[in-house]
Amino acid sequence: MKILACYSIKGGVGKTATSVNLAYAAAQSGLRTLLIDLDSQGASSFYFRVRSGKKNWGKRFFNTYEELLKQIKASDYDNLDIIPAHQSFRHFDALLSDHKKRHRRLRQVLKGLKQEYDLIILDCPPTLSYLSEAVFQAAQMIVVPVIPTTLSERTFEQLQDFFRDKELRLDNIYPFFSMVQRSKHLHKNTIERMQVRYKNMLETQVPFSSDIEKMGEHRSPVACYAARTAGGSSYNHLWQEISQVMDS
Amino acid sequence: MVKHSRWLIQDADQSEQILERMQTHFLPDLICHEQDTLTFYDDFEWRLWRKDFLLASNIRGQIILTEGNDSQTFDNEVSPSFARSFRNQNLSDRLWQVSDIRRLLPMAEVETSVREYALRNFEDEKKVCKLVITRSGYADMWELTSMRGYDKDYREALSCILEAEPENPERHLYRLSLELLDIKPGKYKSKPKTKVPPEMASADACSKMVRKMWKNVRINEDGIIQDLDTEFLHQYRVALRRMRALFAQMKNYIGPEQSLWFKDALGDLARETNRLRDLDVYLEDRDYYFGLVPEKLQPGLEELFQHFTRERNREQKRVAAYLQNTPYLNKVSAIEETLKSCPSEPGEKGHLPIAEVAAQRIRKRYKQIAKDAALIHDQTPDDDVHEIRLDCKKLRYLLEFFGPVLDKERVRPVMQALKKLQDNLGRFNDYSVQRESLEHYLENHKTSEEIQKAVHALSGVLFMKQQKEREQVCGQLEDFLADDVRQLIKQLTQPTSMAQSSKGSPA
Ligand SMILES: Nc1ncnc2c1ncn2[C@@H]1O[C@H](COP(=O)(O)OP(=O)(O)O)[C@@H](O)[C@H]1O
Ligand SMILES: [Mg+2]
């Protein structure tokens, strides 16, 4: 079982769009896939039309994997299940701070799911926290959407600093360009510069696309209603690239 | 964890009513609606059907296998031919258990329409249950499948359907649909049983039996000509062999002259197919032979098997032509004419009741085996062992032919005991036959040095195996001649047992 995290310090960069569409692409390719919506905002859950139960179960999240099993919901699609977010996920940091081996906690609890799933995708909230540290420990691959602007480049560097600081594996980080607008000079220049600088930069670029924007209306992965458009097909390419990296 | 329920609803209107009622609980979203033609396959002996399997292909390249009430669909499959030619290993293995080397032949078609619904909740239009309605001429089959995390919705849908009190099908829709089309297995059996009353005159009883066996000869011709699978030839030969055995052993009852004529005529037919059968057996046992020689000699064996394959194809064409030509057809009509008049001159004991004769023949044959076996020890020449093997074969035929006339229940344990001995003697014989025929092949064909080396190696292994079997013969004989089996034979052939079984049968 592989674990993939979609992460960025910044909000609104396309983490959730990436998680949702990669999960769908992976499931379509035959992998038994579980998407865990770690962001209490619940955007991924919304796109897949799943809701968490009312019960405040977040405080048991890190106890045992059986707790997680109870919360799993089928998506509308074959091979793809979801653990929807709950309000109480806001308190994950406080929860983790009480755990002794908090960095390992998430990894430990997810291990229990390896019988049932080939791939787990984590949609993360945009914070640098105990939770994100636990995510970095758990995931073999951390995929970071980067909007090609100067500001984004700087936050990406902040992430790398954090990894150095905590002695995490920098080469697990795989950035890619998200919401790319080729017509913008700034985008073009940033892309060219960063491509030279970061060897782990994925080749696929996800364009800024109104089809992707419309996911909120359709409440489904973009490939379900606009598979043949530039935006609709980009996540499939991204998935193919990622699965090659993961298998190598 | 996924729950699944299935019902049959015979009234199409009722089906639509339930669907309507569903709408007060869910949004039924019709995801696909397709017409389909299912083509059902079985082998010549309908072994899938008899073992409660059904195999179908549909127009989308899928294979559907139902076993009892369960069905499973396999995508991207080849159209059915043999169990071993499917892509999916699980499918292939399950069919192999039932129909092994027999060809799967299309036997019926059923038209269906399939509607697949996603049952969605109102608040998010989330799919919470899967519903498939398959309509055939017989009924609608409703299949409801739960989705993980949505058990409550599943229960709701369930109770919605249950209100209509549909039937839980005892059998699968497909089977019911086929029965509606009056599809049912043919009566063919490779070893057909003929019902004869115990007091029937033995000459007449035997004639009745051979007439039935002859049908099997004719019915297998077409499969041989079309080369559907190798079983057709095998069973064709089995039928001829059984007829000859019956004429040989019962000639004094049926009438010596006619029996002899049949034996020769049937022998002629069998002989024409000897080589083809030998080659079929080689090719079927390919893996077995390869397992017997070391890897470095396998290229030689490979070459030999290529020869066999080519020769087999030539031989098959020859036999197919032969079966359709006048000389064969003339022989066949001569046999059929003579069968009609059989027994034309019954032997002087031909009027004795069959049960009495059968009992006497079985006892005598068993005694013969005992007598011959007394002379066998570990050093007796092979020929004497072969003699006993033939005795056993004869006994086996008597039990097969006449066991049911005597007492079905009492025959079974004797057969079981005999089978153990026959297996041992059979292997002993097979190894020597295989060895001789391979060596014979070398003598009669120009072959490469590789082939010769491989055959010599093979011959050596077969010789060793034969010796191993030989060592067991005395022990096996002892078992078969021990008191318990002797008692079984006695009980089977004693007059009271015959009297008992004749009571129940119509005169
Ligand atoms: N490639 C894209 N093109 C256009 N809009 C996008 C694209 N990716 C995401 N969006 C939109 O941007 C907003 C933020 O995206 P989201 O995936 O939720 O980001 P994050 O999870 O990083 O906060 C959403 O409204 C989403 O529909
Ligand atoms: Mg998000």
UniProtKB/TrEMBL annotation, chain A:
* InterPro entries cross-referenced by the UniProt entry: AAA_dom, DNA_Partitioning_ATPase, P-loop_NTPase
What are the AAA domain coordinates in residue numbering?
1-164
Domain of life here?
Bacteria
Cross-referenced Pfam families, in alphabetical order? AAA_31
- Membrane-spanning ranges: none
> CDD domains from the entry?
ParAB_family
Gene3D superfamilies, per this entry?
P-loop containing nucleotide triphosphate hydrolases (3.40.50.300)
Its recorded name reads AAA family ATPase
UniProtKB/TrEMBL annotation, chain B:
| Domain CHAD residues, every copy | 195-486
Phylogenetic placement of the source organism: Bacteria, Pseudomonadati, Pseudomonadota, Gammaproteobacteria, Oceanospirillales
Q: Which domain of life is it from?
A: Bacteria
Q: What is this protein called?
A: CHAD domain-containing protein
